[in-house]
Automatic annotation (TrEMBL):
Cellular component annotations (GO), alphabetically ordered: plasma membrane protein complex
InterPro entries linked to this entry: Peptidase_M56, TonB-dependent_transducer
Family matches, as Gene3D superfamilies: 3.30.1150.10
KW Membrane (keyword) present: yes
Species annotation: Flavobacterium circumlabens
SUPFAM superfamilies with a match to the protein in the record: TolA/TonB C-terminal domain (SSF74653)
Keyword tags: Membrane, Transmembrane, Transmembrane helix
Record Pfam families: Peptidase_M56
Record carries keyword Transmembrane helix: yes
PANTHER family named among the record's database cross-references: PROTEIN TONB (PTHR33446:SF2), PROTEIN TONB-RELATED (PTHR33446)
Protein name, UniProt field: Beta-lactamase regulating signal transducer with metallopeptidase domain
Length: 491
């Protein structure tokens, strides 16, 4: 609910602000009418729209931590705060009072249609009232004073004005905004929307009167003459609604086609930006080409172990002198990075027969490893740059190995409380930076499975001790790291 209110409020304020800045003073009132009504609809719909932007997690160091679910049968759901209950109780009381006020006004207007003489006039119904009143309109009914009507004292301009309200069904707009105000009475923005909608109704009616009778000065004087009368019903359209300087000026205002087109065009990037800001959500997706599953990685490692089973790797120091001999499985991650390509000399793409033949033959008797050779060195970037693992000569790692990291996550991760019928299962994707000193920073949640699973993962990572940083040519650098955490709740 909070997310809905925040997003809808942002949309309502931005669109109403655009109306006041770009449209209100221009003479395309029909467009403005639908813009205001459309703004209400858009603002209520946008919070429910989600556009996912896929971000592939690839070419960064990654591991996959599985967090098993914990038994939650004895967990008691958190009790609702007394303040929340009181808040909803207050909301219910005020909404009920306003609803009955709304219904009561509707009843009075409907009852009023039966209290006087009824006459059909063009597409409207005239109700002649004994009381002294200015003409006002509700739906297709125009209420006027009986004596003034019979003595022809009601100016033609007044009939034209009210008939526009009838023909263009302005009362429906007012009913819509009043229903919204009744439900969202605590939100002041709808007061401004109602004022803007009703004033635009008057612009529409005034424009028709001026075109039909072609006597601007007389009509303006007529409005000022009637200005001391107050409307009786807030649901009705009244001749005297907001006889302001804006209405008088609008009658003589002209809007060029080019200026109108320009201002309408500006609304397109505004709406696009609003949708992007409120509706887009970045989610992670494993890159199908660049990333490999754990099974594929294990299979590849087993194949290399078998291929190099009888190979001796001679390790050179920075002076080119052999200082150690190792088997493949004993090589450090940095040394494994400079192991010669297994399929060097084999035509690409290799056939299955060629791969099997190569693996069956096995590796050479000995291979020299020189991590200090210039061809094996990486190019250092500018100061402060963030590296990917493909740029490193040594990947960042957790002290003691990745298995201890799994254990740390599993021991500290607390499964969130969920409804009894919800079984959490899925992946949480997080990226962070392993700084030069091994500290973790800049945590970004790319995707979670709800119920605070992502926030909990970030909380645990913030508790994590410093890592061994990634290195380029022996120098520590800041490295981007991605972490998929698999949540598997017990059945």
């Amino acid at each position: 609910m909070t997310d809905f209110l925040i997003k809808s409020t942002i949309a309502l304020c931005v669109l109403l602000g655009a109306y006041y800045l770009l449209l209100e003073k221009e003479k395309f009132h029909q467009f403005n009418r639908f813009f205001l009504l459309g703004s209400l609809v858009i603002s209520f719909v946008l919070p429910f729209v989600t556009i996912e932007i896929i971000k592939e997690v690839a070419d960064v160091a990654n591991t996959n931590v599985v967090v098993p679910g914990k038994i939650t049968a004895n967990i008691v759901a958190e009790k609702t705060s007394i303040y929340v209950i009181l808040g909803w109780f207050l909301y219910g009381i005020v909404t009920t009072v306003l609803f009955f006020r709304f219904v009561n006004n509707l009843y009075k207007l409907i009852k009023k249609t039966k209290s006087g003489v009824v006459i059909k006039h063009q597409k409207a119904t005239l109700v002649l009232l004994k009381e002294q009143t200015l003409p006002y309109t509700f739906l297709n009914t125009i209420f006027i004073n009986e004596e003034e009507f019979q003595n022809n004292k009601i100016e033609t301009e007044l009939f034209t004005h009210e008939l526009i309200h009838v023909n263009q069904k302005h009362s429906l707009d007012v009913l819509l905004i009043e229903i919204i105000k009744t439900v969202f009475w605590f939100h002041p923005i709808f007061i401004f929307y109602k004022k803007a909608i009703q004033l635009n109704h008057e612009f529409l009616a005034d424009e028709k009167v001026v075109k039909s009778h072609n006597n601007v000065s007389f009509y303006q004087n007529l409005l000022l003459e009637k200005a001391n009368h107050n409307p009786i019903y807030y649901l009705a359209s009244n001749l005297n609604y907001s006889v302001t300087k804006k209405r008088l000026i609008m009658m003589t205002t002209t809007t060029s086609a080019s200026r109108g087109f320009f201002k309408k065009t500006i609304l397109l990037p505004l709406l696009t930006g609003l949708v992007y800001f409120l509706c887009t959500k970045t989610v992670a997706q494993e890159a199908k080409i660049k990333s490999t599953s754990n099974k594929e990685t294990d299979k590849k490692a087993s194949a290399l172990d078998a291929y190099y089973d009888k190979t001796t790797f001679k390790i050179k120091d920075d002076k080119g002198i052999v200082v150690a001999e190792k088997k493949y499985k004993d090589l450090s991650p940095t040394e494994k990075k400079v192991v010669p390509n297994l399929f060097e000399g084999v035509k690409f793409p290799a056939t299955k027969e060629e791969i099997d033949s190569k693996l069956e033959k096995g590796g050479p008797e000995s291979v020299e490893i020189d991590v200090y050779d210039p061809k094996n060195q990486k190019v250092k970037k500018e100061e402060g740059a963030i590296y990917k693992t493909s740029d490193l000569t040594e990947n960042p790692s957790y002290p003691g190995g990745i298995e201890l990291f799994y254990k740390f996550i599993g021991q500290n991760y607390k499964m969130p409380v969920t409804p009894a019928d919800v079984k959490l299962k899925g992946r949480v994707y997080i990226t962070f930076i392993v700084e030069k000193d091994g500290a973790l920073s800049d945590f970004k949640l790319l995707r979670d499975i709800g119920y605070g699973t992502g926030d909990e993962a970030i909380r645990v990572l913030k508790l994590c001790p410093n890592w061994l940083p990634g290195k380029v040519n022996g120098e520590p650098v800041a490295t981007m790291y991605s972490l998929p955490i698999t949540i598997q709740a017990h059945e």
